[in-house]
Amino acid sequence: MEDLNYLLKREQEELLRAQSAHCRAASHAHQRLANGYAQRIREHVHPYRSQRPDGSAPFALNEQRGERI
Asked: Looking at residue 22, what DSSP letter applies?
C-alpha cells in the first residue's frame, strides 16, 4: 500500500511546479505528473477525496475549477 501522505505531498509539489514553470512544456509535464498522483490518490484504499452529492469534490483540482495552468 502506498503512503497517502506521500502521494498528497507529491501532487501538491507538482501542481506548484506546474504553476511556476517557465515554459509551457514544463508546465504540462508537471501537470501530467500531478494528474498521475491524483489518480493514485483516488484509487487509494483510504479514500481522501469523496464526491459530494452534486458531483463536486472538496479538493477540486485546478482543471476541474476551470483554471488554466
From this structure: S
